[in-house]
Structures are given as C-alpha cells and as structure tokens.
Design brief:
Number of domains: 1
Structural class: mainly alpha
Number of strands: 0
Strand content: under 5%
Shape: flat
Largest sheet: none
Radius of gyration: 18 Å
Number of helices: 4
Distance between the termini: 58 Å
Helix content: over 70%
Length: 113
C-alpha cells in the first residue's frame, strides 16, 4: 500500500468516526422528550413528505429546499435511533390528529409563532 492509499484510508476512517459520533450524539438527543419535540417540530415545518408543487417556480424551489432539509434530518434520525424516530412519528401523528389540520404553529420569517 503506497502513501496515497494510506492517506485516503485514514481520511475515510476519520470521516466514519465523525459520522458515528454524530449519530451517537443525535441518538442521545432523540432519547429525550425535549429532543424529540424539537425534531418533530423541524420535520413538521419542513414537510419531507409533502408535495412541493406551486404555480410559482420560486415558491416551488423554496418548498423543495425545505423538503430536502427535512428529508435529510428525517433520515439522520431514523438511522441514529430507529425506535425514538418511530416514537417521534407517533407523537407527530397523535398531535396532528388531536390539534386539527394546522398541527404545530408555524414560524414566520421573523421567527414569531
């Protein structure tokens, strides 16, 4: 194995270690009620499963960006702590069914609810 291959292998190993630490940290956050509520809100606000269609192409691009952020975090949560992710999904469904169609209050651009 030459020097370039060793460097590449070390770089891959470091990346894998960072990813494992990230998923472990995320799992610890999702193990708390507070953490699940925060991520439930993030997923509710970014709507990873919603349609992004709009007649306005800029609005559609904005919605797709939000959806992609939500989908990325949804996957991270599902990989980091599958059981806690499912619990969070159940909590979202329960909250949405008991609070009507609006679910959680949305946040406007100024950060106000």
């Amino acid at each position: 194995m030459d020097q370039q291959e060793r460097r590449e292998r070390r770089a891959r190993e470091k990346l894998e270690e960072r990813q494992a630490a990230f998923l472990e940290d995320l799992g610890a956050i999702l193990a708390t009620d507070h953490g699940r509520r925060v991520f439930a809100r993030l997923l509710t606000e970014t709507r990873p499963f919603a349609s992004v269609f709009s007649e306005n192409p800029l609005e559609m691009a904005r919605r797709e960006g939000e959806r992609m952020v939500g989908e990325t975090w949804r996957r991270y949560c599902a990989v980091a702590e599958p059981e806690q992710y499912l619990a969070m999904e159940r909590e979202i469904a329960h909250r949405d069914s008991s609070s009507g169609p609006s679910g959680t209050p949305s946040v406007n651009d100024a950060g106000e609810t």
